[in-house]
Amino acid sequence: MNFESELRIKIIEAVQTLYSTALKEKDVVLQPTRKEFEGDITLVVFGIAKASKKNPEVTGNEIGEYLQKNSSFVSGFNVIKGFLNVVIADQSWLTFFNKIEKVQSSKFSGSMLSPTLNIEQNNSERSAPLIMVEYSSPNTNKPLHLGHIRNNLLGHSVSELLAASGNRVMKVNLVNDRGIHICKSMLAWKKWGKGETPESTDTKGDHLVGKYYVLFDKKYKEEIERLVRKGADKEDAEKNAPLMLEIQDMLRKWEAGDKETLDLWSMMNDWVYKGFEESYHILGVTFDKIYYESKTYLHGKKIVEEGLKNNVFYKKEDGSVWIDLTDVGLDHKVLLRGDGTSVYITQDLGTAQLRFDEYPGLQQLIYVVGNEQEYHFKVLKEIFKKLGRSWADGLYHLSYGMVDLPSGKMKSREGTVVDADDLIKEIIEEAELNTKALGKIDDFNSDEAKKLYHTIGMGALKYFILKVDPKKRMLFNPAESIDLNGNTGPFIQYTYARIRSVMRKGNEMKLEAGGWKLEIGKEEKELIKQIYYYKDVLKEAASNHSPALIANYAYELAKSYNHFYHECPIIDPADADRSAFRLKLSETTSSFVAASLKMLGIEAPERM
Question: Which CATH class is domain 3-88?
Fold first, then answer.
């Protein structure tokens, strides 16, 4: 049942009858009624007033009267300035609910809602659009940090939203496993590592490699300072410091296939991959395919050769290759260094081409990358346009804001980042302390309790990050994220667990009812309305690549249920029909809470 579609038809009919004017569907602008006004669906009257040749308030009242007289599902209306607020009849909301009452939530996983809702399609249908989402994209010179957490959670959630909206989605990761930044960790370990390994130091592999990345930067700065003290210009000192010259030589050796360099690179990368796998597992993040820059950058070099051959690119006297993008408001961009080594854009060219070659039906390639790389992805798209690639407009940069801490901006090279593993451990410990303080899990065994702490902690972390519009820079506050009150993951999880507890008690009554014709109260109606709008929120969240929309929907739904819970006795032995209805409403609500949380990668616990 789609009230907007039915209402739009009736409004077009009203305008034709009242003003002898034929409206098109796009001329009928509808939106949910704002909470401070009475009504369910609002018509924006201003545009229609031109057809009526009357002021918007008069026009709104005339259309409202027509709808109330000629539409069985409209029970009332009011006009506020140029807005007609339409009240949908309670029985119509109940009819909608009756159509979805078969949604089973006792074992609901969130993977498929009732077919009557037509919200999710079969993601395996070959006719569905194929979208590839690239996220994580870590460097193998350091462990994942708080910024990576936002990237991974955002990429995973957007993938879930797109899949739930009927697309075929491929979740991919591009590991930046080569380049001068990787060589920094390698050279530092070679010079000062004394052969230590993750096993010999009992250290997670990515943490050990990250230690040497920070050490390189420290030693490099010391060299620059010494050269400057001897009279060198700072820029020259940065270019000619012995460590920088060594690192450039190591990169050339890597690209030339030097065995010793490759063996060191392979060993240290393996340490990092094992560390990443542990972090991904804890985060609940998965990928359908992993690409490695070391295997894609050569494809980029071939594209550079193609561009030179077709005069799309040009070569400077030092042998470096460039493209002139000033005609599209950008700049000259280097694509290959003078010594023949590649830059970031080189491998991105190769990887994009490889993906569209591998998957001819690919319609969109979404890069989940921070907003400091906006210029980079504009350049990438324009290069492919100039190369004549038909799929160039399918490249989309999902740009998101950085994550700050109360202490300020994080810097990897200076070792001031918040390590992802440490943060996850801290927030799970905080969840344990808070949960124990409430004293509600005395009947949990140790394994159940441990799992619950993890579920609550990860729910707190994920929700706090995903509830913020991706485009906005955010401040992460671990203490605030774990609060059981307010707009937090644990609050929504607790609401779900509360509903499941209600259902367990209600199931003991063995009530059977359906097709209700009873009168519904405002709390019941509000819950049904929230359920009704899920499909619209899901669609908008997917089209805007914004998990924040579904996150805040989940919060509003949880708030509405808690208000309903406190105002309406759910189980009343003296009124079996009303009890059955409210239990079914509770069960259906829990299904939509779980579905919303699943879009965010958050587990809904049965007990808390």
Answer: alpha beta
Composition of the chain by helix, strand, coil, percent to 5: 55, 10, 30
- Measured CA to CA, the distance from residue 271 to residue 268 in angstroms comes to 5
Closest CA to 171 of 185, 181, 161, 186: 161
Distance between CA atoms of residues 341 and 339, nearest Å: 6
Residue in the structure block whose two tokens are 């609050």? 491
Burial of 566 (0-12, 13-18, 19+ CB in 10 A): exposed
* Nearest alpha-carbon partner for 281 in 211, 204, 355, 213: 204
pLDDT at site 56: 96
The Cα–Cα gap between 80 and 446 comes to: 58
Instruction: Kindly list the domain boundaries of the chain, sorted by start residue.
Output: 3-88, 179-189+199-266, 472-599
Give the tens place of pLDDT for each residue, 415-448. Answer: 456 889 999 999 999 999 999 988 888 889 999 9
> On the CB side of 453, how many CA atoms lie within 13 Å of its CA?
22
Q: For the whole model, what pTM was predicted? A: 0.89
In one letter, which amino acid is 315?
K
Amino acid at 34: R
8 A C-beta contact, residue 185 and residue 316: no
CATH of domain 472-599: 1.10.730.10
Q: What is the DSSP letter of 267?
A: H
Per-residue pLDDT tens digits for 339-379: 888 888 999 999 999 999 999 999 999 999 999 999 999 99
Which residue's entry shows tokens 């009919």?
13
Helix H or strand E segment including 475: strand 474-475
DSSP string, 483-519: -SSSSSHHHHHHHHHHHHHHHHHHHTT-----S--S-
DSSP per-residue codes, 203-250: --HHHHHHHHHHHHHHHHHHHHHHHHHTT--HHHHHHH-HHHHHHHHH
CA dist 261 to 21, 178, 244, 298, 339, Å? Answer: 77, 12, 16, 18, 18
Q: What is the pLDDT of residue 107?
A: 37
Q: Minimal CA–CA distance to 350: which of 291, 269, 273?
A: 291
Q: Around Cβ 510, how many Cβ atoms within 10 Å?
A: 6
pLDDT score for 416 = 55
Distances (CA, A) of 547 to 158, 467, 561, 604: 6, 7, 21, 17
- In angstroms, how far is CA 57 from the centroid of its own chain? 41
Closest residue by Cα to residue 600 from 538, 512, 515: 538
Per-10-residue mean pLDDT of the chain, 608 residues long, equals: 94 97 94 94 95 95 98 96 96 90 44 37 66 96 92 98 97 94 97 97 97 96 96 95 96 94 98 97 96 91 96 97 97 93 90 96 97 97 98 97 69 61 92 89 92 96 96 87 89 97 86 73 95 96 98 98 96 87 94 97 96
